[in-house]
Structure of Ring-cleaving dioxygenase:
Amino acid sequence: MKLKGIHHVSAITANAKNNYAFYTMVLGMRLVKKTVNQDDTSVYHLFYADEKGNPGTDLTFFEIPRAGHTYEGNNSISFTSLRVPDDAALRYWVQRLEDHNVKHDGIQDQNGRAVLPFQDLEGQRLLLVSDEKDSGVKAGKPWAKSPVPQDKGIIGLGPVKLTVQSKETTVSFLKDFLGFRDAWSYPSPIEGQPDIQVYETGEGGTGAEVHVEERLDLTRERPGRGSVHHVAFRVENQEELAEWAKKLKAARIGNSGLVDRFYFQSLYFREPNGILFELATDGPGFATDEDVNHLGESLALPPFFEDQREQIEASLKPLDTKEANEK
């Protein structure tokens, strides 16, 4: 019952077409699944990842066309990081982001680890993190057809940062219930604020970390476009997921029960400060209903939505995602 690391992060976009262009053509990630939000099939759910959509590499977006501005604050997932192979890759990314007029804060040192904070076109808070000194959870492999050279490409998800007003309950939940352990800390970039604490699970390293930031000066975040909806952590299989469901029930922690997402099985609950967590199985994976060479080209629907395909397709704005695979 040890969590293996980060499985995926799901965020919000107001424009699927622009989102697709940025994450595939600027960041060079592969769209491995074009499907719909299973809780609202009138909008897209897009999955970007490595060459095959391996667990731990997926950054996903729910399209909410009328999503308003995000007012940053507490009780939030306040950054998502993306792993790159080494420090040289970060230097490449500085130039690439500037070439595409993407706002960034320059390469910074995070307790000996090189990072590059930046934002997407909707203000999504992102961080490229170098794996040069990493020896933890294995990374993925960039897609061969990416516009970014493979030796510089994004190889998976890195740490997420949780920003809370009072860290004690969140830290206790991470360590005592989910099994995370103390790792290290680094100074807050905000003068006068406490150090940011790092916790890790599984094999540790960039693919298995949660950073906890305590901010007494902020109010609760009001999410919108460019905000993060939830973070998911990896479990081995459905049997283990069922054991986690029993553990949540025994602790009287409200949860979704087991949810079939077809590409993986899920379990949702909130930590004490209200941030949404998910546990998700490593399989069966995104090649379950599409050939691995043609992932993301057409609208994929789980079998339990196939009888609604005509209605669902009629409600969606056309989104051409085949071009990238043809290059």
Remarks:
- The chain has one domain: 6-326.
- Residues 138 and 207 are 8 Å apart (CA to CA).
- The radius of gyration is 19 Å.
- The mean pLDDT is 97.
